[in-house]
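Q: Predict the bound structure with 3-isopropylmalic acid.
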Amino acid sequence: MRTHHLAVIGGDGIGPDVTAAALAGVRAAADRYGFAIETTEFDLGAEAYLRSGVALDEASIEALRRHDAVLLGAVGDPRVTPGVLERGLIVGLRVAFAQSVNIRPVRLYPGVESPVAGVSPDNCDLVIIRENTEGLYTGGGSISHPGTPNAVAIQNSITTVPATTETVEFAFRLASARRKRLTLCHKKNILVHAGQLWQDVVDEVATRYPDVEHDYVHADAMCLHLPLDPGRFDVVVTDNLFGDILSDLGATVQGGLGLAASANHNPRGTAPSMYEPVHGSAPDIAGKGWANPAAAALSAALCLAGLGERDGALALEAAAASVLAELPALAGPGMGGDTAEIGRRIADRVTDVDPAKIGDPERSLM
Amino acid sequence: MRTHHLAVIGGDGIGPDVTAAALAGVRAAADRYGFAIETTEFDLGAEAYLRSGVALDEASIEALRRHDAVLLGAVGDPRVTPGVLERGLIVGLRVAFAQSVNIRPVRLYPGVESPVAGVSPDNCDLVIIRENTEGLYTGGGSISHPGTPNAVAIQNSITTVPATTETVEFAFRLASARRKRLTLCHKKNILVHAGQLWQDVVDEVATRYPDVEHDYVHADAMCLHLPLDPGRFDVVVTDNLFGDILSDLGATVQGGLGLAASANHNPRGTAPSMYEPVHGSAPDIAGKGWANPAAAALSAALCLAGLGERDGALALEAAAASVLAELPALAGPGMGGDTAEIGRRIADRVTDVDPAKIGDPERSLM
Ligand SMILES: CC(C)[C@H](C(=O)O)[C@@H](O)C(=O)O
Ligand SMILES: CC(C)[C@H](C(=O)O)[C@@H](O)C(=O)O
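A: Predicted complex:
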């Protein structure tokens, strides 16, 4: 039997609970489609950091590397300076494992309501492809004389051809398997250097995908077009920071962070890819069972797709989507079930859901 | 009689038409409140650039400088490389005239519908204060070996204490005159150096405004909170690029770009401030009379406020808001009147509108 070895980083707050619930769905998909899942839990996150003083040690990186994929819950804890775990662990793994492509589907599932007028399952099915390792996330910069009137803060954004090309190539291939439209989103009227590199790469890769039309939208204008006319977009390719911001906007349009899934994808297969819900660790509701595991389950579906388990991926996505449509609220005490129970509901549904009911299964995500 | 000397840059596309319509409203306010307006038209924009090869010449800067304020329509033309006029003229003037504070009200006027569920005039009245001259807009950077696989693009973001302090100081003063809440928006978990400088400045200025509460929200999270819970915000202070993006999101929430006004404000009074609608030149509908002049009229109201004509500003804002509530669509052939006619309607309304009807006149914008 095909066996996939998953590294599991539950992390902090609601992370372990939503990950456990998502794994129930993954196991149900394995049973239905005849593959096996082996999991190894990694104790990374706030507790480990407070104990050891490092967010991500070399030994963990090497152990994680021996797996086929990483499932991450969420990190972040009030006892740790904000940003330390996010940079150290999440951004650290993205870079260590060359996960240059971040995949963020923005899809309104039937039965889920968008807060934006006019958005419906018929016109809201796009994927944001975000470069995941560069731009302002390189972290270069300095602050001189902090706290004085002479302080100057410098942040450097670095954009290279290899990571940009991998991202753009992935985006074109995806668009070619979908509705054949690609939109580059940047702010090239101001960030002229990075914008030129992105546009050059898009123009170059486009020659290899003559079936895909492409256009360009500024990042600011995207805040009008994405909510007001999502049907205009199929695949949106963008840089790290714009993708960070716009995928949260996408989450709003698709019904909330409770639905937003992501894949941190290594397109060369040189290290495992990592799958995580877009939401954070929500320490205020940790342990209450109020967290909706749908975004974690949808991220796990992306994981199955990345592992080549296409049928299992579609079934898990369909199961999560059909459970979502029944939840009265996206999280909180009114959710109508606790996190583990909703995970079991998703798992039960995986067994008999028709994957075709959530849309054209030919239209691939990965 | 008090006389204000306005420099008028109609610019390109729909810019001249919406500016002329807005000026009709300004003149009506002058008549009602007993001040005079003198205008000087400046021929800047695409035509001038195509003729001279420069977007903004020294002689124009010096002539503009002798005015009390600048009204700008819009710039951008298909015959000019995108970005050249925007950077040369708009960003050029912001920097030349030390307009370090960009003021962008996000207000849902009664009778206008927001596309976002739950947003109402009762919970949507905030102001985004954007630093207007620094960050990634400093434009520093390079692209080495463009068009080759070795290309590397660098963009530098520079943040200094003086411009940041001017912006934050302005934001606190405004919050203190409003609902006494200020939110810093940044991405300090990733942009650690710039984020630290912003947070240090906010913490320092906050000591002088003990009546104002302040908190912090990441730029990505803002894409959830701003549309879904605008009532949580009073004054949002942020950097140049985040402000650019989030004020377009604000425009979506408040009903569209047809309503989004802005002031490029020089807080030290060392050079004129500049007022412009957030929308662009829309060359496709130029000359058709389909452009809604409301955003230009609301920007002109900010101009009157900046000139100390508080009553005139409130009357013009109220007049534009009341006309807006009657327009069936925000622009296009279904607008129910052409740009000039709507300008006249706003001007007529200025004469007898009750400024208090658009809200508490004590709650200042400037
Ligand atoms: C937690 C943070 C570092 C991260 C990011 O900025 O990329 C998050 O916002 C995301 O979008 O995955
Ligand atoms: C035209 C462009 C340079 C400008 C900006 O990026 O600031 C515009 O988008 C704005 O928001 O005023």
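A: Chain A has a mean pLDDT of 94.
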